Amino acid sequence: MSKSRLNKKGQYARGVVLSRVSWTKVILGWVMLLSIGSSSIFPCIALGATESNSSNDLTQLSLEELMDLEVTSVSKKKQKLSGAAAAIFVITQEDIRRSGVTSIPEALRMVPGLQVARLDSNKWAVSARGFNSRFSNKMLVLIDGRNLYNSFFAGTIWEAEDTILEDIERIEVIRGPGGTLWGVNAVNGVINIITKNAKDTHGGLISTLGGTEEAIGGVRYGGGFGQDLHYRLFAKALNRDTYFNQSGAHDDWRMLRGGFRTDWDIDHQNTFMAEGAIYDGNVGQRVTLPTLVAPSFSRAVDEDIKMTGGHILMQWAHKVSQDSDLALKFFYDYSQREETAIKTTIDTFDFDFQHRFALPFDQDFVWGLGYRYWMDEYRTTFTVSPSPQEETFHLFNGFIQDEISLLADTVKITLGSKLSRNDYTGFEVQPSGRVLWQPVSEHTWWLAASRAVRVPSRAADNGAVVLPPNPPALTVPVRIRGNQRLGPESLVALEVGYRLAPIPEATFDVTAFYNLYDNLLGTKRVAVTPLPTFQFVNNKEARTHGVEVAANVQVFESWQIRGAYTYLNIDVETEAGALGLPDVDEQGNPHHQASIRSLVSLPFNVELDSWVRYVDALPSQSIPSYWELDLRVGWKPWKDVEISLVGQNLLDKHHPEMASSFLQTQATEVQRSMYGKITWNF
Amino acid sequence: MLTLSSLFRFLCLLLGFLSLSVGISSSDSFAESRTEYKLKAAFLYHFVQFAEWPGQVFSQENTRIHICNYGENSFGGLLEKTFEGKSVKARRFLVRNHTSTIEMKDCHVLFVNRNVDMTKKNVQQLLKQTQALLVGETEDFLEYGGMIQFYHADKKIRFAVNPDALDRKKIHLSSKLLRLAKIFRSE
Asked: What is the ipTM of this complex?
């Protein structure tokens, strides 16, 4: 360890010689990592430390520029948006507030490269770069680091997750694989929802919203004990009305939720965070269930799904030095669901460890290990009867990543790999390589190649589902069996991106990708009697490509325009005679999507915001293309009070966004709605 | 189910990683990123450029500007690196680290780390001992008589200035600097 020391003459004596030998240490480090990869035990070597020659002298910046730099966050190296070699889009709290959305999935409609559809009042389909359905399984969603992965179908139960929207700090969306270090199903992207530090939510907040489709009330109170320990408590109730269907609908729902978050700065090296919540809801649906009674072999049931759950998450972060930190995270999540077809409880335990440090020559190294364990129980119903009824599952995760900065920080190379081991498919390696070139701060180019896999869900491994008949093709119920010999779905993704920031008032971001999928999940007919029976098999290949554009222009100080455009094309090799799965469908995702938001700040604390969206048709589901418009007027009569009036989906009395999928719950059409909202901070 | 070979592979990984990390984390200063204290060091550099001390503070033409860091060193060498080889109005710098309040008399800038307990009494004690521009990062630092205080807003570093405290020591800060600062007034 060489530190700058003043000698007697007041000159600086520095360890320059040491830094010359550090290349050998870099190489040594890599050799070591590679040999670990090939599973040989390597003797422990302590790498010596040297001081690197720092090229970026911050004193060259003006004070104004200094004040505009973000501080590296504690647990992970925080990158400015323009410095990331991945397709990133960030939804800020301000975006959420001014868009007038009342749920998290709705906010995601502004993100290029995401497909968002509302199947009914309480069910959403969200995916990145295609393969969208209610059971989208190629997307990883995190809230404060808690993985929302549902082990049964490997997707996200959006209706079960919520919080006070005002307490969300930002939502980071990364399209494409390898943008994340964790996760076995972050194949097409990651949605990372980050709530505010309890330090930033002192005081009370009451938020009430009432309108034609919903009524929502939220209360939060936060405070602190001294300067270092902060907390907040919240409760939220929501009641949403049915949407439209010609034959009537039963998708109204109610949800109650309460939770807390504490942040404790133990000392300047250690921080501790704990958060938790519980929820309880009655979520309505009309579902068509299979029966063995002719002639229809099905019956429609109006029911309320009883959903209950909770979680607790704890995270400890330790700052070893300015350039090194550790984080240890644990969470436990419980969920219970009761409906006619599915009766299940799932307990999930998850431990993650992460360590970041700098290596000589501007290298930033991060690695981590994780272990997840879940146990579930399914009470057999005619529709869903996995075998065994109870199962435990282990997932081991690891990752390594090295970011190397070259040529005075103008080039960054990121090499890394996820490593995982699971009970269904064994050991998986998911490497990725990224290059970023930022010749000047206005222009950023990046290129990435990654491999990613998706591990089969419990349903695909050993589930058994009976689907109601789907005339005219099928006039009797159909059975789909799991397959314990399934391999992982795999993807090789190529991405290229360019970001332009000619002036601070305008940014432009374009990404293109080409994805090659192999071993995608399909079905194969294995029996005809007593019921036509299919089995899950890895029999599909797909190629997708697309372009995603995001632009942001500050026309005047008081007027901002934010746009997004998405082009997506999917080619799937399908086989005749197989039962199609809804998500692997060439025509099941929009080719074109666009979103333009205008945010105007007027005198007297009045805001006028509008949002126009276009979503292309889904021919295979007979869903036409649609345009929609949201308008919001906000007014702050006093500093702590905000009143807003919002109209959503104003262009149509009602419009469908997606057809009923796999489990045949009735799809309803999103209705035009109006609401008023008062937010009071005290 | 877990096979022995894959378990073995995982253990190898774990062992390898741990050995690597233990080796590395035992030494602390590597290639820096834009960390909080690197930024703060740059801020301090700017403060000096915009500050004027009363004449008697610099005894000679070539007296160096003494940048003093008080408390457990959060900069870890960054302060030295920031000021190395630079000068303001032909004066070069001398960076000093103090863990106690002795011999602070000739400091020109005194940065107090947040790990030092900055009670009102302690701040007043420092003000008695030195003519320095007193910069801190703890809450209430200005209220207790400090001159500049760093704080965080939106993950960015901001600073607040206490003009009364500056006046008392006859240190003048340029309006260019004050324009960017939050101004503190004691009630």
From this structure: 0.75
Q: Which of B5, B7, B11, B13 to mutate to test the interface with A (most CBs of A within 10 A)?
A: B13
Q: Which helix (H) or strand (E) holds A94?
A: helix A93-99
A-chain CB neighbours of B24 within 8 Å are 46-47, 49, 324, 357, 359, 365
Note whether A646 and A679 are within 8 A (CB): no
pLDDT in tens, A140-187: 899 998 988 887 777 899 999 999 999 998 998 889 886 556 666 788
Domain residue extents for chain A = 1-51, 52-71+84-345+357-681
CA dihedral A585, A341, A311, A213 (to 10 degrees): 70
pLDDT band at residue A447 using 50, 70 and 90 as cut-offs = very high
Q: How far apart are CA A512 and CA A67, in angstroms?
A: 33
Specify the CATH number of the domain A52-71+84-345+357-681. 2.40.170.20
Question: Which residue type sits at A169?
Answer: E
Nearest to B39 by CA among B155, B171, B118, B142: B155
- Predicted TM-score (pTM) of the model is 0.71
Chain A contact probe: residue of B20, B21, B34, B94 with most A CBs at under 10 A: B20
Residue range A103-148, pLDDT digits in tens: 999 999 999 999 999 999 999 999 999 888 888 888 889 999 898 8
Of residues A165, A349, A147, the one with CA closest to residue A257: A165
Residue ranges and CATH numbers for the domains of chain B are 36-183 (3.40.50)
Q: Do A58 and B41 touch (CB under 8 A)?
A: yes
Size of interface A-B (CB pairs under 8 A): 195
